[in-house]
Structure formats: C-alpha cells, structure tokens
Amino acid sequence: MRCPHCHSTATSERSDRTAHGYRRFRCRECQRGFNERTGSVLNRLQVPSDVVFLIVLWRLWLKLSLRDLAEILLLRGLVFSHDAVRDWETRLAPLLANALRQRRRGKVGRSWYVDETYLKVAGQWQYLYRAIDSDGNLDTQMSIPADRHSQPAG
Hints:
The chain is an alpha+beta fold.
C-alpha cells in the first residue's frame, strides 16, 4: 500500500489491527504509521466504514429524517447523534452519487415519459415522438405516417 504522507511504496504491514479491524502499515521512508482509511474521507471516524455507508444509503434511499435514523439505530445498540449522520451525509453523498453515475454511464433509465404529436413539416404531416427517461435524457424521433404512403396521389 502506498504511504498517504510521502507517497512511497516502501511500506510494511504491521501484525496488529485497529480497534475496528483495519490493517495497519508503517512507511519505511518517513517512519509514519497509517491504516487503510488514512487520507480518505472516512479518516478519524469512530464507526466502521460499512456501517457509515449503510446509514447514509438508508438516509438517501428511504428518506428518513436524521433524528428517526439515529433512534432506529439506537435500538440496535449504535449510539450517535443526528448531527453525526448529517456530517456523514455531506461527506459521502457526493462520493456515492459520482460512483452511481459512473456505473450508469451509457445506460438509459428504466422509466420513460413518452409524448406524441402530429405536425406539418415542409408540407407533410409527420409524427413527432419524444421520450424522456427518469434521468432527464431526451430522445426524439420523427416519422411519416404509414397510411400516407399507401394512399394514391391525387
């Protein structure tokens, strides 16, 4: 693992772990100790990373209030204030949003709103179809009605 302080690759893993079970390292060049979370947005948290991510996902996904979320997790034995949840959300929500955007890049949304209208373009009546997915991506298509081709001119 690369040292977050001097960016050296000359590091050694220590045999002990942190209180939350994270691996500990020591840099041979700058002689500083660090763990897996050092230098990340999760540094200096008193709660394990997976619990923090789960709480933030519940907050965003289930739209629970800060106080309700703190009370729910108090029933499970996790004691923290609603201010801690707000701090975690401000740190992690942009990271989660960017990660989800990267995963969904090039994919279309699952739900669509479709609109159809009939308009005259260069003297010909045509259908204009517009579809907007749940992310706001717009797709349009113009087509000439099939019955216009089958009618004889005259």
